[in-house]
Amino acid sequence: MSDGSSFYITTPIFYVNDVPHIGHAYTEVAADVLARWHRQSGEDAWLLTGTDEHGQKILRTATANGVTPKEWADRLVETAWKPLLATVDIRNDDFIRTTDVRHEVNAQKFLQHLYDAGHIYTGEYEGFYCVGCEEYKQPSDLIEGVGEYVGQQVCAIHSIPCELLHEKNYFFRMSTFGDQLLALYEENPNFVQPESARNEVISFVKQGLSDLSISRSSFDWGIKVPWDDSHVVYVWFDALLNYITAAGYGHDDEKFSRLWPATHVVGKDILRFHAVIWPAMLLAAGIEVPRQVFGHGWLLVGGEKMSKSKLTGIAPSQITDTFGSDAFRYYFMRAISFGQDGSFSWEDLSARYQSELANGFGNLASRVIAMVVRYCDGEIPVVGEFSDADELIRGTEKRVTDAATLAIGHLAIHEAIAAIWELVDDLNGYITAQEPWALAKDPANRARLEAVLATAMRGLGTLAVLLSPVVPQATAKLWTALGGSGLVSDQRIDRAWEWTGGPRVSPLEALFPRIEATVG
Ligand code: MSP
């Protein structure tokens, strides 16, 4: 079946009941950095994102706003969700909406296939449903309410009471896949990562799986069940299928076999859907399970998961309007260990912008280029002999390229950036120690001056290539100023250190300009 030749990576598809906040943008950026990295490694990388548009949550929001759910979804997709991609500079290869015909038709094919194979039956269910999560909750998922909900059990994520539902629905025989799933986690320890997420999923499955209610008949905003149009497909069952319908399942076999299986980047709130329900659905259909499900942590505000419903949401543009998309991308990828929760603070963002991006990286680039202009008329020196200090920088370039590549291999984006920053720091230390401005005062030191500037230029070229997935705009400007040929985003990242320099530099505007305004 799959030849798995591609690096296919996905974000969750986002609910269109509201506009994006920085938590959503965080997921987008992480997946985009990984996709860009793999593209620059010469792989056929393919990034999918999109929107989740069916279900009760969207229906209720649309009704409350006096429009049809499709009108509501269209409005939010065009005015909020697609623009988010430009706001944080996402280079996605496709954008799927669950209301796309290509999705609806092929999701129905999948369902019919499961039905024909005997994995679906009619049953009854009563339980507590959280519309915010679009999920039936077990008593152990609920917590004691506070404020107006004191004395009631509420959803641990949304802090509001669940609704008691009693339904006659179609069910997926998920309970029969418990052993196969446990074997999968055992045989492929990387299937669910990080380790904390893997452990949580294993202990959940070990408690025994129930069958899953996969249709609803009390409302009609969804994909019709193909053999019974009085039911619509449960929104999660519908949504998970986006990963294959967008990749050609049911309509483009060649594409599907090239792309599938995917790496799924998701927030830990939706880990079970991706690491339990989704592989069970695929096993039932005889389709290969995903390559990996990575559950990242939450952005916290005031110690709680940031969310619009709790009024702690921050719009991505609040940050990018002042700091730019590169700074947004850098900050969240660098400051938070990917896989763990992290608290956002304006102070931390400002401090890192100033010390790491503006002073550490931006100034280094401006100073070196200015010196090449001043001392060498803009011509990048070609040097025959390098000193030990120059060779040390060369060594650092190679070492951090390898370390960053290794870190990305296990999705440790923060570790990759930290490794690359060793080169930023070493180059700054090198310039301070070599004092090219002092060497320039005496023509007898000309050869040494040229070796220092050539070494620094090469270091900057390496940095431009390595940092391109994280700060694409700044590195594109830097690459042009360095006289690099082609696009920096087309340079092989696993060989970033091999770059030896262009013919001439051109002037470089400040990569990370000083920010005067008070923010927050
Ligand atoms: N529609 C479902 C996903 C279906 S995927 C087949 C959904 N959508 S969502 O819009 O509520 O959120 C999706 C994702 O946004 C989360 O899994 C997570 O990746 C991201 N985040 C939402 N809030 C977040 C934080 N506060 N912090 C980090 N990520 C957050 O769930």
From TrEMBL:
<feature type="short sequence motif" description="'HIGH' region">
    <location>
        <begin position="14"/>
        <end position="24"/>
    </location>
</feature>
<dbReference type="Pfam" id="PF09334">
    <property type="entry name" value="tRNA-synt_1g"/>
</dbReference>
<feature type="binding site">
    <location>
        <position position="133"/>
    </location>
    <ligand>
        <name>Zn(2+)</name>
    </ligand>
</feature>
<keyword id="KW-0963">Cytoplasm</keyword>
<feature type="binding site">
    <location>
        <position position="155"/>
    </location>
    <ligand>
        <name>Zn(2+)</name>
    </ligand>
</feature>
<dbReference type="InterPro" id="IPR013155">
    <property type="entry name" value="M/V/L/I-tRNA-synth_anticd-bd"/>
</dbReference>
<keyword id="KW-0547">Nucleotide-binding</keyword>
<dbReference type="InterPro" id="IPR014758">
    <property type="entry name" value="Met-tRNA_synth"/>
</dbReference>
<comment type="similarity">
    <text>Belongs to the class-I aminoacyl-tRNA synthetase family. MetG type 2A subfamily.</text>
</comment>
<dbReference type="InterPro" id="IPR033911">
    <property type="entry name" value="MetRS_core"/>
</dbReference>
<dbReference type="InterPro" id="IPR023457">
    <property type="entry name" value="Met-tRNA_synth_2"/>
</dbReference>
<feature type="domain" description="Methionyl/Valyl/Leucyl/Isoleucyl-tRNA synthetase anticodon-binding">
    <location>
        <begin position="402"/>
        <end position="492"/>
    </location>
</feature>
<dbReference type="InterPro" id="IPR041872">
    <property type="entry name" value="Anticodon_Met"/>
</dbReference>
<dbReference type="InterPro" id="IPR009080">
    <property type="entry name" value="tRNAsynth_Ia_anticodon-bd"/>
</dbReference>
<comment type="function">
    <text>Is required not only for elongation of protein synthesis but also for the initiation of all mRNA translation through initiator tRNA(fMet) aminoacylation.</text>
</comment>
<keyword id="KW-0862">Zinc</keyword>
<protein>
    <recommendedName>
        <fullName>Methionine--tRNA ligase</fullName>
        <ecNumber>6.1.1.10</ecNumber>
    </recommendedName>
</protein>
<keyword id="KW-0067">ATP-binding</keyword>
<feature type="binding site">
    <location>
        <position position="158"/>
    </location>
    <ligand>
        <name>Zn(2+)</name>
    </ligand>
</feature>
<dbReference type="Pfam" id="PF08264">
    <property type="entry name" value="Anticodon_1"/>
</dbReference>
<comment type="subunit">
    <text>Monomer.</text>
</comment>
<feature type="short sequence motif" description="'KMSKS' region">
    <location>
        <begin position="305"/>
        <end position="309"/>
    </location>
</feature>
<feature type="binding site">
    <location>
        <position position="130"/>
    </location>
    <ligand>
        <name>Zn(2+)</name>
    </ligand>
</feature>
<dbReference type="InterPro" id="IPR014729">
    <property type="entry name" value="Rossmann-like_a/b/a_fold"/>
</dbReference>
<keyword id="KW-0436">Ligase</keyword>
<keyword id="KW-0479">Metal-binding</keyword>
<keyword id="KW-0648">Protein biosynthesis</keyword>
<dbReference type="InterPro" id="IPR015413">
    <property type="entry name" value="Methionyl/Leucyl_tRNA_Synth"/>
</dbReference>
<dbReference type="GO" id="GO:0004825">
    <property type="term" value="F:methionine-tRNA ligase activity"/>
</dbReference>
<feature type="domain" description="Methionyl/Leucyl tRNA synthetase">
    <location>
        <begin position="8"/>
        <end position="368"/>
    </location>
</feature>
<keyword id="KW-0030">Aminoacyl-tRNA synthetase</keyword>
